[in-house]
Amino acid sequence: MQTNKLCRFTALITHQRFSGLFLTGFAVLFFLHCVISSGQLQAAPIDVPNASFESPQTDFVDTRLDFWQKTPKPAWWDENSYGPWDQLVGSFANVAPEDPRHIDNCHGNQAIWVFANPGVGLFQDYESSDWSGPNPRHAFDARFGVGKGYELTVGVFVGVAYPMAEGATLELSLYYRNASGNRVTVAATVITNSPATFQPDMHHLIDFKVNMGPVASGDPWAGQHIGIAITSTVSQMAGGYWVVDNVRLYEVSPPVLAGSVKTNGLFGFNIVSEPGRELEILSANEADAPLSQWVSLGTATNLTGTVFFSEPLSTQRQRFYRAREVP
Fold first, then answer.
1. Over the stretch 174-232, which tens digit does the pLDDT of each residue have?
2. Based on CB atoms within 10 Å of each CB, which residue in 49, 108, 271, 307 is the most buried?
């Protein structure tokens, strides 16, 4: 099971009625916020250093991780009783295909383990360090761009060597650092260990996603460096460990409304987005209406990159439309 905290919105299109005539085309507001496009919008991959945990290379296991910083040991963790904190996250080599423990969709030859204990995890941003020393690596140099959305995808399954308590959770998140240098979460997905999601003796990574809506110019994270965190969020030791691999980050353009047309008593327009996205279309009588006053007109799956939506012409003086991606 996964829970997503944010969804995406796009700009607006409207039709207006004056003296009994509908003025089709784009309102000024639409021009201010959108680009007319007849092509497809594609997600742009963002390079994440050591995204597949292949460095340093190991033939067995290694507690060192290049470019990723581990979460600090909490004061209550007694290493004499519980063992070294540093060993709760590390990389391991995938076993041979004929071995029943082989991960059939491992990206590269290595993955990592993250024990299901409170606060165990790893993170990476422009200011993070790694095992080689306390100085920031300054390797992950991506920033939150105004008008851009972001999608984080990570492969995960529950390790089988030690049993994990049902209900144990792992959080995937995007964050920025505030003026004090503290990590502030912007969007997150919580993965929950359950039989419905993770089958027993499973050695196959399942992709989980964090979807983050477009960055507004007034957002505190606008222009700030992007951070990625993978954190065990249990409140007490849950036993077992998560297997994690193949971190992918994409910069996503929000859906665009384009090409409005009035014909045969219908008003319609194209929605341009990345292929395969499921979109919800909403309408309101005022462009600045609160979200609670926007009415859902239905959903559409954009299989090719452009999908057309239409509805009967409204008798209201004006009507605004927007689209959002269904989380």
1. 999 999 999 999 999 999 999 999 988 889 999 999 999 889 999 999 999 999 999 99
2. 271
* Closest of 77, 121, 39, 73 to residue 306, by C-alpha: 39
CA gap 238, 243 in Å, rounded: 15
Q: Is 188 in the same domain as 209?
A: yes
Tally Cβ neighbours within 10 Å of residue 227: 24
Pairing mode of beta strands 241-252, 110-115 = antiparallel
**Other Cβ atoms closer than 10 A to 77:** 17
Residue 283 lies in a domain: yes
Looking up tokens 């851009």 gives 148
Sequence-distant (6+) residues with CB within 8 A of 98 are none
Residues 27 and 50 in one domain: no
| pTM for this model (two decimals) | 0.78
Q: What is the gyration radius of the CA atoms in the chain, in angstroms? A: 23
Spatial contact of 163 and 215, defined as CB atoms under 8 Å apart: no
Average pLDDT of adjacent 10-residue blocks, the chain of 327 residues: 42 44 31 35 87 98 98 97 97 97 97 98 98 98 94 96 95 98 98 94 95 92 98 95 98 86 90 87 89 92 92 84 83
For residue 194, the Cα-to-chain-centroid distance in whole angstroms is: 21
CA-to-CA distance for 111 and 98, rounded, in angstroms? 18
Domain of 128: which CATH number? 2.60.120.260
Partners of residue 183 on adjacent β-strands: 177
* Residue 125 and residue 17 in one domain: no
Do 199 and 278 have their domain in common?
no
By C-alpha distance, which of 68, 73, 93, 69 is closest to 83? 73
Task: Specify burial of residue 181 (Cβ count, 10 A radius: 0-12, 13-18, 19+).
Answer: exposed
Instruction: For residue 175, count other CB atoms closer than 10 A to its CB.
Output: 21
267-283, pLDDT tens digit by residue? 999 998 888 888 999 99
Q: The domain containing residue 310 runs over which residues?
A: 7-39+256-325
67 and 14 fall within a common domain: no
The residue among 2, 53, 10, 8 whose CA lies nearest residue 228 is 53
